[in-house]
Amino acid sequence: MNMEFKRKLPQPSEVKEMFPLTEGMKETVKQKTEELQDIFSNRSDKLVLIIGPCSADNEKSVLDYISRLAAVQEKVKDRVMIVPRVYTNKPRTTGEGYKGFVHQPDPDESPDLFKGIIFTREMHMSAIKEAGSVCADELLYPENYKYIDDLLGYVAIGARSVEDQQHRMTASAADCPVGMKNPTSGDLSVMMNAITAAQHEHDFIYRGWEGHSNGNPYAHAILRGYVNRQGVSHPNYHYETLLYLSELYKNSDLVNPGVIIDCNHANSGKDPMQQPRIMKDVLLSCRYNEDIKKLVRGFMVESYIEDGKQPVGGGVYGKSITDACLGWDKTEKMIYEIAEMI
């Protein structure tokens, strides 16, 4: 095998022993996860807002951002549940570029996966401890999930991972809600198959163990737009697609029908400034059609302290080094505006 094995990494159980949750942190995770489960099972009429940087690239600025969200959450808590995005893995279409906090806890230094695992756990713990927030992360590498599975309130399966069997089966073992994105091709049947797989139980190999999952009743859809054969972005958040998705759910045996609208990526053509408009468009569809209102569980937004993006090493505090984000001032205004529309 053409690979250099650099060092053996600790098992998730060992890392959890090194960095254990306090009883208070455990209670926060339990309470917030149950609140999310109530939303995705339609026992609560709140909407979820999964919001934060495209990728978590700096612990100080990410925690600063989360603390700002916590202050806003208090003002909209009756209508919106805010779940900070702390995405510590960054999928790369060509494999080139910054791969996220797990790979490089310091984007200016060489990869250090051991340090990345430790720093990732510490950052998620700090979000719970300092802001009372349970966060969302992307399940990019299924074998990494156990390092932080006791910390997360929400998990997303990306457009390039949603067809992978290991991702689907790992999602079926998660305790928290898991969103399955439509693939980059836009084929909604692929997404629906992934949700079906995640809601059912499985026996499979995981981290060298023969494991059994009980199925995740909170697995649901995420619409993120798609790209055609010419590489042109097309949205799929409009009324007609939402109505079509509602019918797909009705013709399935899936429980807890639901969808999160990813307001960036192909839905916005990667223009983050379009995200507030997209959210308002979807909320108008919810007002017009009761089936759509029951289906839409919330939104996913890429947002950070500063508008736009910069190259690695750019030096601007709180500005994305991956996809462009909506800045804080616009984000705060957007949250209050959508809360009024719900």
SSE order in H/E notation?
HHEHEHEEHEHEEEEEHEHHEH
Helix content: 25-40%
Outline the low-pLDDT stretches.
none
**Order of strands across the main sheet:** 2-1-12-11-8-5-4-3
CATH class: Alpha Beta
Biggest pleated sheet: 8 strands, parallel
Count of alpha and pi helical runs: 10
- Judged by helices, strands and strand pairing, the structural class is alpha/beta
CATH topology: TIM Barrel
**CATH homologous superfamily?**
Aldolase class I
Structure description:
The protein is of the alpha/beta class. It has a single domain, classed as TIM Barrel (Alpha-Beta Barrel), CATH 3.20.20. The chain has 10 helices and 12 strands. The protein has helices at 12-18, 23-40, 59-76, 113-131, 165-172, 188-199, 239-250, 275-288, 290-295, 328-341; strands at residues 47-52, 80-84, 135-138, 152-157, 178-181, 202-206, 209-213, 220-223, 226-227, 233-234, 259-262, 296-302. The strands form 3 sheets. Strands 2-1-12-11-8-5-4-3 form an 8-stranded parallel beta sheet. A two-stranded antiparallel sheet has the order 6-7. It has a two-stranded antiparallel sheet with strand order 9-10. The protein is globular and about 55 Å long. The mean pLDDT is 95.
Brief characterization of the structure:
It contains ten helices and twelve strands. It is α/β, with parallel strands linked by helices and 342 residues long. The protein has one domain (12-341): TIM Barrel (Alpha-Beta Barrel), CATH 3.20.20.
